[in-house]
Design brief:
The chain has helices at 70-74, 77-90, 112-123, 137-140; strands at residues 17-21, 37-41, 61-63, 103-106, 127-130. It is an alpha+beta fold and 143 residues long. Helix 2 (77-90) crosses helix 3. 19% of the residues are buried.
Amino acid sequence: MLRPLLPRKLPCVPTADVAGEAVEIGSGVKNFKRGDKVVAMLSIFTGGGFSEYGVANENLNVPRPPEVSAPEGASLPVAALTAHMALTQSIGLKLDKSGPHKNILVTATSVGVGHYAVQLAKLGIAHVTATCGARNLSEREGG
């Protein structure tokens, strides 16, 4: 039953979110060059994010702005993509402000997906009601 979820090859090096520097570039890559700072999402089936080096498709890489550290950048791909898909595909929110106004409840806004969901929902002119644990309340007030 779990066979499809297990790694295809062992040893398995987990994690799909990475950030770093491009040290080698494939011949078909057009948008990146050696030395570029990037954030990438590796295959969720093969992982490799905890490796010293990883291989990512060009279309799953974005340039990392200089003000974003590698650890900050590495926290982005899966959490932000999950929030994006939940808002745009599950509830139909238009992030370009072209759709109808929506009221959205986002839970656990002090971490990962919830944090990104609030920011993306505000892009889509949604009214956001957010929840978080009491110990994180001071972080969320006024945001």
